[in-house]
Write a structure and sequence with these properties.
This protein is an alpha/beta fold and 343 residues long. The protein folds into 2 domains: 209 residues, D-Maltodextrin-Binding Protein, domain 2; 93 residues, Periplasmic binding protein-like II (D-Maltodextrin-Binding Protein, domain 2), CATH 3.40.190. Helices cover 51% and strands 15% of the residues.
């Protein structure tokens, strides 16, 4: 009888313990269903993010779920990667090549969306600098933001004429400071980025002495891998909202321009140059063209020592890209139609 009581007591204890743990697990799963906060960046080189921030679209999308939105400014791909790596943001805007560098360096991100196909970078100088070609940069002070598309563009440009970064004097500055350093003649040249580059062309007459649209990689929205695994439906809804804003921007290009002007304090002419001539937001998909661009950028970065030789670029790109969060039936807008709509 005594042993039976002990047995029943043990069974009761085990069952109660199991129920407690089940409750804890259920509470955890319920909690993990939605985050209380989504942190996303906005960037001057990602105009749709500026429009989306101004219109409060994400706030409206997640209001009924009591999910707050926090916006963080990324001044360059390097900053976006830094924030993603540190968990300061859940979604970040970078260039495609920067995403490849980040993933190759162990930053756990997924590339999930194309926010633009830009020609946003070129090599820039002052009109009386005597710099007319890439080879003229030997021994010169060149402002550059490490780990960004302009930096990668500069490295590829140098490599194309048999030079390396060791042949110049890099001055490491964020993009707006690089522009200011150029026009104040603290540096001889600058690996430029729009909208500051367009501003220089029009307002301070700083010439673009080397352009190559094919060396510009796509604008990519990235998500922290652990966030995406934990909240896949949230990622889908963020991209759904991005899509609403991309389409709205195409139909209301004056609104897109106003958001850019407001954010960067640009003139109408400068904003029009960036958006009308050098920004294509017609396609949100990461497809074969984008993948080939990532692979080509990764290979050149490996050749010049930015990515270790022991790393497989193909594996990095495969691990980086995840297209599962974006619907497959999105309409692609012809870029000629997009550009035909006047700002």
């Amino acid at each position: 009888m005594f042993l039976k009581k002990i047995y029943n007591l043990l069974i009761s204890l085990i069952l109660n313990t199991a129920l407690v743990f089940t409750g804890i697990i259920f509470s955890f799963v319920s909690y993990a269903k939605n985050p209380s906060l989504i942190t996303i960046d906005y960037a001057y080189y990602n105009p749709v993010s500026l429009l989306m921030k101004d219109r409060g679209s994400l706030e409206k999308e997640f209001e009924k779920d009591n999910i707050k939105i926090r916006w963080v400014l990324s001044l360059g791909s390097n900053k976006a990667l830094e924030y993603l790596n540190g968990g300061s943001i859940d979604f970040g805007s970078t260039a495609g090549a920067a995403s490849v560098i980040g993933r190759a360096n162990g930053i756990p991100i997924k590339a999930i969306y194309v926010y633009s196909k830009p020609e946003w970078t070129a090599l820039v100088t002052n009109k009386d600098s005597g710099i007319n070609s890439i080879k003229d940069l030997v021994g010169k002070r060149v402002a550059v933001t490490r780990g960004t598309d302009p930096h990668i563009f500069l490295l590829q440009a140098l490599d194309s004429v048999g030079l390396t970064e060791k042949d110049i004097k890099p001055v490491l500055l964020q993009h707006p400071d690089g522009y200011r350093a150029l026009i104040s003649r603290q540096v001889d040249a600058w690996a430029g980025l729009d909208p500051h580059m367009a501003k220089g062309e029009l307002e301070t007459k700083t010439p673009l002495f080397y352009r190559n649209a094919d060396l510009n990689t796509y604008g990519i929205l990235n998500v922290r891998e652990d966030f995406a695994l934990k909240y896949p439906s949230i990622v889908e809804r963020v991209l759904k909202t991005y899509e609403i804003e991309r389409k709205y921007a195409i139909s209301n290009q004056d609104k897109l321009k106003k958001s850019l002007i407001k954010a960067v304090k640009l003139s109408d002419e400068v904003a029009q140059k960036q958006l009308g001539e050098r920004t294509d937001i017609s396609n949100p998909y990461i497809g074969p063209k984008q993948i080939n661009t990532f692979l080509a950028a990764g290979n050149i970065l490996q050749k010049i020592g930015i990515i270790k030789n022991s790393i497989s670029i193909e594996d990095v790109v495969n691990d980086l890209i995840d297209t599962s969060y974006l619907p497959k039936n999105i309409k692609i807008v012809d870029q000629n139609v997009f550009n035909s709509k006047k700002y």
